[in-house]
Amino acid sequence: MTMRRKQYKVSNGAVQLAVSETGQGQTLLFFNGGGATQVSWKRLIGELGGPYRLVTFDFRNHGKTTTSHNTSFESFLTDAEAMMDKVALDRPILVGWSLGADLAVWYAASHPGKVAGLFLIDGALPVNLVSDPEDVRRRLNTLVMRIGPLLLMASWWGATRPSVPKARAPLAGQYPSASFQGAGKACAIARRVCPTMPAWRSERCPVR
Fold this sequence. Notes:
CATH class of the domain at 5-129 and 192-202: Alpha Beta
Radius of gyration: 17 Å
Distance between the termini: 29 Å
CATH superfamily of the domain at 5-129 and 192-202: Alpha/Beta hydrolase fold, catalytic domain
Number of helices: 8
Strand content: 15-25%
Shape: globular
């Protein structure tokens, strides 16, 4: 039996967040990784059974959500907060991947009691080991890290060029957050998430 999917927009100031949801029951709210869209969860959602309300969305400048000049960590957090306040409502389980995992930890730490649980994939932990943001900046500001996004763009272009319209931009052009600005974004996360660890450790919500 195919679950009926609802699609709609949620306002966060001038940004219109593209939202999809299916099912009923305990809410699972999915936070995408940087450069990814809610389509990333399609297969996982198709495999999930049980009484769940499954909610995905696109952060600003991603997928079907509108664009914004502000792509700071704080601006992404406001997108998450808008979803929590207007859609998730009563103690959802947050499923976060990469940047989404960092945002999930930050939200849970700064909003005690609002989250029933965290499921973190490839991100956020162990945030307490990031004690020196400048060291993170130095290690990320290497030739490999600088050319990595260019190699990804080149491989994407080579794999898709025959079927892609000329007007279509590569991934990093579609999603400014995917252009990495690597060290700055990582250090912003480290500065924001690490101070929340005492509050986060005091949280009673389960973490996986």
